[in-house]
Design a protein that fits this description.
Elements: E1 5-16, E2 19-25, E3 28-30, E4 34-38, H1 45-53, E5 60-65, H2 71-78, E6 81-84, H3 96-107, H4 113-121, H5 137-149, E7 155-159, H6 167-184, E8 187-191, H7 195-199, E9 204-209, E10 212-218, H8 219-225, E11 228-234, H9 237-247, E12 253-255, E13 260-263, H10 270-279, E14 284-291, H11 294-301
Parallel strand pairs: 4-8, 4-9, 6-7, 7-8
Antiparallel strand pairs: 1-2, 1-3, 1-5, 9-10, 11-13, 11-14, 12-13
Helix pairs in contact: 4-5
């Protein structure tokens, strides 16, 4: 497999009895990217991440992980992988530091100092001696992130890592992940229901719906598709659309039901578009500048 991809799947499928959680998914994740998984609950995001992390097995298709394509190879690759999927299994009566120390020993990771470094990196140094059961939800999320990072992984798999964090905590985790990606070239696969936050971090996206991969796209191409547009509502949309082409030489537009038109080019020339309607006696009912965000883009896809 080309070193360009750290993960590549072919018709990856997972069935739970009669329920198909993931269906024929062809997903390719570039090494060094931050891959944002987008999808509603039940779309297949967590199932896909669990397959990669070895927490469940696919029932169909195949995948390559860090160049490995069999169970023996996957075990080697997963030693270079960190993951937070659902709730990590921490011991409630042990402190944050004791929990990490337990997993450090269990995993055979050398050097006690790595526990303190991980706690500091995720902003938990001040809570190192606090019992896990006394930590806030946001702190528990950060401790999970510290655990995932403890083996200094090449690939980081994060399922809803900012769930429960306040705005300051979200920014802190975002900046940390960006630094990890840019300075250490760690590939990050991240799912989140906070889609505006994914827009601040992802370099690539995979859109899942009902277990199927609907689209895979780079952030750069997505930005091109999500440019600002003018939404105009007129009394005679067909006539106005014809005038757009003949008088303003505008061809990048869409005519929608109920008299709405979306204009996708030269959106700064708002006076030209309003003047065109007035000149030809077409009623201008509404006129608004809009922008497609990630949530709207996903909803349009599915």
């Amino acid at each position: 497999m080309s070193e360009e991809f750290i993960v590549k799947t072919v018709k990856l499928t997972k069935e739970y009895g009669q329920t198909v959680a993931l269906k024929n998914a062809d997903i390719a994740i570039r090494r060094g990217s931050i891959y944002g998984l987008v999808g509603n609950n039940g779309a297949g995001k967590t199932t896909f991440l669990k397959i990669l992390a070895g927490q469940t097995h696919a029932t169909g298709g195949s995948f390559i992980l860090m160049g490995e394509d069999n169970e023996k190879g996957y075990k080697k690759a997963r030693k270079r992988t960190g993951a937070i999927i659902e709730n990590p299994g921490f011991y409630p009566k042990l402190s944050a530091k004791q929990n990490l120390e337990y997993y450090r020993i269990q995993r055979g990771i050398p050097g006690k100092d790595i526990v303190d470094r991980m706690l500091e990196q995720v902003g938990l140094s001040g809570a190192a001696k606090r019992k896990f059961e006394k930590l806030s939800l946001g702190m528990k999320q950060r401790l999970g992130l510290a655990l995932a990072l403890m083996g200094e992984p090449e690939l980081l798999i994060l399922d809803e890592p900012i769930n429960g964090l306040d705005p300051a905590g979200i920014i802190e985790v975002r900046n940390f992940l960006l630094k990890l990606n840019q300075e250490k070239n760690v590939t990050i696969i991240i799912s989140s229901h906070i889609l505006t936050e994914l827009q601040n971090i992802a370099t690539d996206y995979g859109f899942l719906s009902k277990g199927e991969l609907v689209e895979q796209i780079s952030a750069e191409k997505l930005r091109e598709k999500c440019k600002a547009f003018l939404e105009i509502k007129v009394t005679d949309a067909e006539r106005y659309a014809a005038l757009l082409e003949t008088e303003l030489l505008c061809s990048n537009y869409k005519v929608l039901p109920d008299g709405y038109i979306h204009i996708l080019e030269r959106v700064d020339n708002v006076s030209d578009y309003s003047a065109l309607a007035v000149k030809h006696g077409i009623g201008l009912l509404s006129f608004e500048m809009k922008e497609i965000n990630l949530e709207n883009y996903y909803m349009n896809l599915v």
